[in-house]
Amino acid sequence: MSKRTAPRRQADNEARAMARSLPVSPQKLNLVAQSIRGKPVSKALADLSFSRRRIAVDVKKALQSAIANAENNHGLDVDRLVVADASVGPSLKMRRFRPAGRGRVHPYRKLFSNIEIIVREAEEDY
């Protein structure tokens, strides 16, 4: 006998995708995530395509992955999908040092972030 499968964490009309260790601070990534929250996926993809921020390319890949998960794994209608949530969190912090005058060093951190995108099938069309 095998183990029972765990119940789904999302509702039946939701799908999610995650992108981990993106090389950008959570504060900057959250600006991009705010621009797509609550929008239909077609509008969110268009906004990410024309965004001037470098990290928008990686967020667009994560959104496309969430759309593909919704369509292929859960059988949801792509035309009725809405970005329900785009949550950002911190990942690792690489500590680096920069040489300074008189033989001293100044530390700084390179920040990384995680993003989780949840798409939901809306009841009415947009």
SSE diagram, text form:
Layout: E1 14-22, H1 26-34, H2 41-49, H3 56-73, E2 81-99, E3 105-121
Antiparallel strand pairs: 1-3, 2-3
Structural write-up:
There is one protein chain. The protein has 126 residues and is an alpha+beta fold. It has one domain (14-121): Alpha-Beta Complex (Ribosomal Protein L22, Chain A), CATH 3.90.470.10. 29% of the residues lie in helices and 36% in strands. The protein contains three helices and three strands. It has helices at 26-34, 41-49, 56-73; strands spanning 14-22, 81-99, 105-121. Strands 1-3-2 form a three-stranded antiparallel β-sheet. β2 and β3 (105-121) form a beta hairpin. α2 runs antiparallel to α3 (56-73). The longest helix is centred in the middle third of the chain and has 18 residues, at 56-73. It is flat, with a radius of gyration of 18 Å. The model has no long low-confidence stretch (mean pLDDT 95).
